[in-house]
């Protein structure tokens, strides 16, 4: 089993960033034993609101490098 996991990881690391992120998210989700349905609904609403703001040009997007720089300045 350990060898198979290492082989899977090696292949996964060869994938594009978006695919790796999707896999990582799915793996993290699989660790949750209980789901707080109310929290899930609230997160979904928040995500949809933020996407609407982005699509409508209501917010300024910054790169991760810029966000990290701003955080470091505080």
Fold and architecture overview:
This protein has 74 residues and is mainly alpha-helical. It folds into 2 domains: 1-33; 34-74, no CATH class. Helices cover 74% and strands 0% of the residues. It has helices at residues 2-12, 17-31, 37-55, 64-73. The chain starts with a helix and ends with a helix. The model has no long low-confidence stretch (mean pLDDT 93).
- Rg over CA atoms: 17 Å
What fraction strand?
under 5%
Helix-strand string: HHHH
The residue ranges in which pLDDT falls below 50 over 5 or more consecutive positions are: none
For the biggest sheet, the summary is: none
Mean pLDDT: 93
The total strand number stands at 0
User: Percent helix among the residues?
Assistant: over 70%
Please, how many domains? Answer: 2
Quote the distance from N terminus to C terminus: 46 Å
Shape: extended
Q: Give the count of helical stretches.
A: 4
Which assembly state applies to the chains in this document? single chain
- Class based on secondary structure composition and strand pairing: mainly alpha
